[in-house]
Amino acid sequence: MNKRVQDKWTMEDIEAAIRHMHQSHEKLNHVVTFVDPRKQLLDVAEGPFHQVPIALKDNVNTKGILTTASSKILSDYVPVYDATITKKLREAGAVVIAKTSLDELGMGGTNLSAATGPVLNPYDLSRISGGSSGGSAVAVASGDVPFAIGSDTGDSVRKPASFCGITGTKPTYGRISRYGIIPYASSLDHVAFFTRNVKDAAIGLGVLAGRDDHDMTSSFLPVDDYENYDANIEGKVFGVLKSVTDYIEDARVLALFDQLLDKLKAKGAIIKEVEIPYNLMKAVWSTYNILSNCEATANHSNLDGLRFGVGVSGESVEEVMTKSRTQGLSFYIRRRFVTGSYGLLQENQEKLFKKAQRVRRLIVEAYRQCFEAADVVLAPASGRIATKLSGSDSDPMSDESLIVENWLVLGNFSGYPSVTLPMGFVDECPIGVNLNTLPFTEKQLFGYCAAVEEVTGYADMVKEVGKDEL
Amino acid sequence: MNFEVIIGIEIHCELKTTTKMFSGAPVTFGQAPNSAVNEIDLAHPGTLPCVNKEAVRKALLACYACHCEIDTLVRFDRKNYYYSDLPKGYQITQQFHPIGSHGYITLSTGKKVRLNRIHMEEDTAKQFHLSDKTEMDFNRAGVPLVEIVSEPDLRSSAEAIDYVNQLREILEYLDVSDAKMEEGSIRCDINISLRPYGYDGFGTKVEIKNLNSLANIERAIEFESERQSELYLRGKSVIQETRRFDEASRTTKSMRTKETALDYKYFPEPNIFPIRLSEKWLKEIQDNMPESAKAKRERFVGLGLSETDAAILVSQRPLAAFFEETIQYTDQIKAVANWLLVDTLGYCNKENLPVADLKLKPKALADLIDLIQNKTISSKQAKEVFAQLLEGRDAGEVVKSKGMTQVSDAGFIQSLIDEVLAENPQLIADYRAGKDRSLGFVVGQVMKKSQGKANPALTSDLAKKALSGQ
């Protein structure tokens, strides 16, 4: 199914989407919970999403519907309240048909750590979907739904979008309320989403954006008419982030990127190079590692098995908490919490947490300066296509691993808006390009993205994996 | 005692707001357990804090009344520790930037006790440890608190109690808090150390947690200074530790030592951006500061009351308020004070009734006083009427229903005197023979015939004339 959000949807379409999703789930394992939509169908609002079937990442709270964050400790958690965006989407007419898989608690980039098992890439079932919003990415890429919510703390929407050949939009920090999203790291967490074209992304942001008094970090700035973006890029400066492209090892990826630049130039764009000092780019991963884990360890201290979630009985309250956390959280999550706690210890804060905060500010300042020379900053979203489920043999400390595979974190450090969209294929697997602009300029960003979409022709791509194809 | 006692006090004071510090759940006292909670208080996944503006206003009132410097950039931090009464696994507090600092409180002796800081935070849940289980009440979780921390300027238990009383009076009169120790709206932690007289440094301090009455503060200080003194005299040292006061044995007991002290891993709360307080709002708060107890006492003295009477009236805020409302209705200010201090307080003490729970209405008391003043009723009748007013009735209505209106009609009284003299002709002769008893007899008979309504003074005058034949 390659129907778009902007198309007219019927009740039959919703039924078809549900059937389609059941079929693709058998192959891709991307759904945690199929939501029975009957109750929602009693009252479908008019609006830009009227009768559009959508999927939500399973860290988005849905009142009365299981919300697990793909973690064992929340495997029985049924929220008593809706996330603000759940309400907004329902008020725009959307019908939630599934809650999708993620890396446990949103912490990961492969979707291999979900409690329900790995999510597979529809383009190559031996490859990962990417994460942490892998389930939602796959739901859109495989043609189940035209729109799915994810969340993006490091690159958790924009990287899987690259691996799955779709559009992943992360707006400015504060543009969309985070109330009701099970957090990872509060200062880096963004609500983000997947579509198969730029226009649908603009429609989606129009519905989701806006001040929410439940989220004090949400912005009071008025919501733009994003759909009226201008795709004319004549005279616009596209700043290629040389600090990333310099370290891409796969020549095929660079070739795709260069072709794209040529086509943009032909459309009148001015191509320039922009740079961030090497030492700062190399520090992105470690800075992220400290900050995200420090915030995460505090954010998830509520998961103690006492008031909700899976509690393991014990002789004392302390024992219940210890056992519930030990048994309910996987080893990798606990390792992150230990890392975070270590960084926050009084004796370590200065050299770890506070230092990371200072480095974050330096990186953001260098990133901001790129926009003094360019209207939009871009680079390939990844240096390589999705890795194999069995793992990658690349050196984790190489420049490519540290810089190219982590540069999207600049969008989380800065909060600037950032969109990934398909750029081409390598080994029949998609790879994306990522575009960025200054805060609260999503409308302009959508214009640049629409220009890219126009020159690549990669709008509305679907990779069916139903029984017929396999 | 061979040593000087050095005492500092930390007071946790619950703010009197309608909703909690970071959630919209109501603040209640004495309600059914867990009836005033929402998903935020229970730290359900995905919830976010939202600062209660009224709580900030009340904290500012406290700061101004204690002569603090105000930090106009309000910031919050996380204090991380696992405990079952702390749903999030961290408390939101103001570790790094308290809203108020460098204030002082004046004791009744005139001595100034310096305040280190006043900061805002949230309360924890209440726990009830039973023999086989622990029960939790989350109504208190998230209730706004200010923590008021003194410098180690106090030197005795008497000063400590004076300090707490002064502070309590300030907070109560600002309407910032109920300031009731017995209901837990004020809780004290005491820091105490000893040093030889004349020595400038400080000895090792011990913190005593959660003292819930003035009597316990006194006992804890007395016990602890004795304990430390004994240790020093025996050549031993005091260890830095946290102790608790055991009510049963009236001793302090060790909870944890410095070696096992928790590292709270404080870091800035990422979900609340710093809030800049506007000059206009601050001025509005300062311009509308409720009258302090001290100012009120002085004003009452200015109205003609004695210092003692003014002090007793102000010692209870509801009593002072009752006084002020009553004198709206009558200009008999001293009479109002007398009725309140003697009859009303007497009744309250006898019935063990708080002034706030009196059924007596200020207007009714004022009317009663006026009825006495204009001689409509006698002071003897007034006592009888007052008893009815305590049941909530109105003065005029009681006087009327009892037919108590005093008769001052000279003609009517004269006719009664004539009757008495006709019935007892020898009275005139007796009177003229010097028997003063006759006058009393006539007045008594007239009162009897008039059922107590005859104006006694007028009756006496007229009877005197009749007996002497004038």
- If helices are DSSP runs of H or I spanning 4 or more residues, what is the number of helices of chain A? 16
Q: What's the order of the H and E elements of chain A?
A: HEHEHEEEHEHEEHEHHEHHHHHEHHEEH
Largest sheet report of chain A: 11 strands, mixed
Rg of chain A to the nearest angstrom? 21 Å
What is the structural class of chain B? alpha+beta
Shape of chain B: elongated
Mean pLDDT of chain B: 92
The major β-sheet of chain B equals: 9 strands, mixed
Mean pLDDT of chain A: 97
Number of domains of chain A: 1
**In total, how many beta strands of chain A?**
13
- Number of separate domains of chain B: 3
Radius of gyration of chain B equals 31 Å
Biggest interface pair, residues each? A-B, 45 and 28 residues
Low-confidence residue ranges of chain A: none
Question: What is the number of strand segments of chain B?
Answer: 16
Please report which band the strand proportion of chain A falls in: under 5%, 5-15%, 15-25%, 25-35%, 35-45% or over 45%. Answer: 5-15%
